[in-house]
Write a structure and sequence with these properties.
This protein has about 280 residues and is α+β, with helices and mostly antiparallel strands. It is built from five helices and 15 strands. The chain starts with a helix and ends in a 19-residue tail after the last strand. The structure holds 2-amino-4-trifluoromethylsulfanyl-butyric acid and cobalt (II) ion (CO) (2 copies).
Length: about 280
């Protein structure tokens, strides 16, 4: 890393500056620890996602898990939010609020968690299926995972954010699904939602050029129907306008000298829990 970038990185204030932060690669160790705990939290929830369980119960389990590991749930009290998780069911695009709603057979559920470990944020989400998902739901979830991974696998120094967005969009639209435009990924590190915005669509060659030390999320939201979304009266829950199913996966990643490191990989190999079909009752 050039010396001036390094000096900028170690003095970068822990707040939103609008500038893309370049973290010294040593800081990746903090991101690894936060990312691993967030992934372990989602691993812990895999056997808990089943018929009859309320989404608030999943939130209680996650809050206890995070606090028991000496970490903080980043969403708790964030901009007035009151939960550890976002639990987004079926046609909910993102920011679904845990509640007394119980899970039913054939529901599909995104669980999104962000933890803070020693000041570093690990932000990740996955799709879970209650029982065996319907074929179209399975196709949507597979397409969304493939789109996220295509974006992540395109990341290396010199590539632009437009290239990354294009890689994501191409996979999702190739599966006749649509990319949500209103929500994006974000820089992540000692700040939860930092610069840059990571759009999940784009034009190759456009946008900021990736450099080693950048850390951000890739978190495409993909709909089976149209791309339109609306926010419910609670001020958080985003749903598809046409009530079509929506899916999302999210990893926190860092740009290395030669490519990309994923901080939120599942230590248990459960990155795609929607492919595990537990008993239906
Ligand atoms: N974890 C979400 C993200 O991926 C943010 C949730 S903010 C909350 O950026 F306040 F709704 F929790
Ligand atoms: Co998230
Ligand atoms: Co995020």
């Amino acid at each position: 890393m050039p010396v001036l970038d390094y000096v900028e990185a170690i003095h970068a204030p822990k707040r939103f500056t609008g500038q893309i932060k370049l973290h010294p690669l040593e800081a990746f160790e903090g991101m690894r620890r936060a990312g691993r705990l967030a992934a372990e939290c989602l691993d812990m929830l895999v056997p808990e996602v089943k018929e009859g369980v309320a989404t608030q119960h999943l939130d209680d389990l996650a809050r206890t898990f995070v606090l028991d590991h000496g970490a903080l749930p980043a969403c708790l009290f964030y901009r007035g939010y009151r939960h550890t998780l976002c639990t987004s069911l079926n046609h909910v695009v993102c920011h679904g609020i845990p509640s007394s709603r119980v899970l039913h057979n054939e529901d599909i559920l995104n669980i999104d968690v962000t933890v803070i470990v020693d000041g570093w944020h690990g932000d990740t989400s996955r799709m879970y299926a209650v029982g065996a998902p319907r074929r179209k739901a399975e196709r949507l979830m597979d397409a969304t995972y493939a789109a996220m991974m295509a974006g992540i696998n395109s990341i290396k120094p010199g590539v632009t954010l437009g290239d990354v967005g294009f890689a994501i969009q191409r996979v999702a639209e190739g599966e006749r699904c649509s990319i949500v435009r209103e929500f994006c990924g974000h820089g992540v590190g000692q700040v939860f939602h930092d610069a840059p915005n990571i759009l999940h669509f784009g034009v190759p060659g456009e946008g900021s050029v990736l450099k080693p030390g950048m850390t951000f999320t890739v978190e495409p939201m993909v709909n089976l129907g149209g791309a339109g979304v609306k926010i419910l009266a609670d001020g958080w829950t985003a749903v598809t306008k046409d009530k079509s199913l929506s899916a999302q996966f999210e990893h926190s990643v860092g740009v290395t000298e030669t490519g990309v490191e994923i901080f939120t990989l599942s230590p248990a190999g459960l990155d795609r829990p929607h492919t595990i079909h537990g008993p239906t009752a």
